[in-house]
Amino acid sequence: MSKYSEISGYLESQVDIKPEIAIILGSGLGRLADYVEDAKIISYRSIHEKFPEFPVSTAPGHKGNFIFGRINGKNVIMMQGRFHYYEGYSMEQVTFPVRIFAKLGVSTLIVTNAAGGVNLDYEAGDIMIIKDHIRLSPNPLIGKNLDEFGVRFPDMTVVYDKGLRAMAHEIAGEMGIKVFEGVYMNLTGPSYETVSEVKMFRIMGSDAVGMSTVPEVIVARHCGIRVFGMSVITNKATSEDGELLDEQDVLVHADKAATNVMAIVSEMIRRV
Ligand code: HPA
User: Fold this and answer.
1) 12-60 pLDDT, tens digit each
2) Ligand 1: distance of its center to the CA of 246 in Å?
3) What are phi and psi of 175, to 5 degrees?
4) Which atom of ligand 1 is least distant from the CA of 193?
5) Ligand 1, atom 2: nearest CA belongs to which residue?
6) DSSP assignment, residue 52?
7) Residue 228 forms beta bridges with which residues?
């Protein structure tokens, strides 16, 4: 039995909820966990203690828990805190939970993140529905293909489900929440971008940059999981006049937009 089957089997023995939808919460969005009803929390640490190959999370603003429960009548598993490549985890570790989701029978993944605005129309606190991505980190599928999940060369033509994107626009419209739709680009971090790098990213077609999401999304698509993603623009990626980027500002803006993000996400969960 693979380690993924073993760990998902262990989780199934701990909770009686079979999740249909998985939600990954980004930096500063962790309090969205409060929306889960009948929450059963399983810390990454407790899994790591039984299965050492399962990682534990260290980034600021990130807790390390799986939360099983219900949102608007649907069974969900939420990741409060994710694993970043810049923390020193391997891509296999970064994407480990997604393969657990696949084993648990999850069919839809909703990812959120904090990102820097590259598109000049974006302001701190804006929300961007992810239309597509540009991967600038290593590909998480490098290495022997895991045939138990998917094919060697998975298609990436339509990564972010069109129906879910349309639904998110419709809901945001009904709720009077302004949303953009754009291209997310991932970098490894942990340093933020230079002014010149951001100019280059704009030319390349990026609307927002961040340090997560793309590896998990690629692995989810490899497993055949349908994906929806949303970024909170916490800052302009760089300012020409040399205003410096502060990690605390990122968290404050994420917190402000979190209410709107969750309003959209919870209504999407009701409708899927
Ligand atoms: N760059 C990269 N990642 C980020 C940023 C940024 O400006 N803001 C939040 N995450």
Assistant:
1) 999 999 999 999 988 777 777 888 999 999 999 999 999 999 998 665 6
2) 10
3) -90, -5
4) 1
5) 210
6) T
7) 110
Q: Under a CB-based contact definition with an 8 Å cutoff, are residues 28 and 83 in contact?
A: no
Distance 206 CA to ligand 1 centre (A): 13
Burial class (CB in 10 A: 0-12, 13-18, 19+), 29: buried
8-15: long-range contacts at Cβ-Cβ below 8 A with a sequence spacing of 24 or more? 8/100, 8/103, 8/104, 10/47, 10/50, 10/51, 11/42, 11/47, 11/66, 11/68, 11/100, 11/104, 12/104, 14/40, 14/42, 15/40, 15/42, 15/68
- Rounded to an integer, what distance in angstroms lies between the CA atom of residue 43 and that of residue 65? 4
Q: How far is 94 from 215, CA to CA, in rounded Å?
A: 7
| Distance separating alpha carbons of residues 242 and 257, to the nearest angstrom | 25
Instruction: Tell me, in angstroms, the distance from the centre of ligand 1 to residue 38's CA.
Output: 33
